[in-house]
Specification:
The longest helix is centred in the first third of the chain and has 36 residues, at 3-38. By secondary structure, the chain is mainly α. It has one domain (3-121). The chain is built from five helices and no strands.
Length: 128
């Protein structure tokens, strides 16, 4: 198995796990509002503020998860090494253990990725 494929699969798995964890953060404002419904003794402004922070963390996590999944697909297909590496780095933010291994594999797989078409046309010898 090639390093690009391993790095891409690890990136996708790490990103999916991180995105699933981010869904918990998106649910926190709702859970915190139900806590306030049970007892009126809590400071509603503080609960709203902390709930907003959790929601922002959840949205950022989902966006990083999407970037990681796209980067993992690019790594498996061996296209656009920079995007594959960005996805692996995003996955390392979401789920650290698998993400770091994914970054290592994707960075070691750079020679496996296709060269851009513009540089291939420049390096071709002139025709007869």
């Amino acid at each position: 198995m090639q390093k690009g494929t391993v790095g891409g699969v690890l990136t996708i798995v790490s990103s999916v796990l991180g995105a699933l964890g981010s869904i918990f953060f998106l649910a926190m404002p709702y859970l915190m509002s139900t806590l306030d419904d049970f007892s009126g003794t809590y400071d509603t402004e503080a609960i709203d503020f902390v709930g907003g922070l959790y929601a922002a963390i959840g949205i950022i996590g989902l966006l990083l998860g999407a970037l990681g999944i796209v980067g993992g697909i690019f790594a498996v297909n061996r296209k656009t090494w920079g995007l594959a590496l960005a996805g692996a780095i995003a996955s390392s933010i979401l789920f650290f253990p698998l993400g770091i291994v994914a970054v290592i594999f994707v960075s070691m797989a750079q020679p496996e990725f296709a060269k851009p078409a513009a540089s291939a046309a420049i390096n071709q010898p002139p025709g007869p």
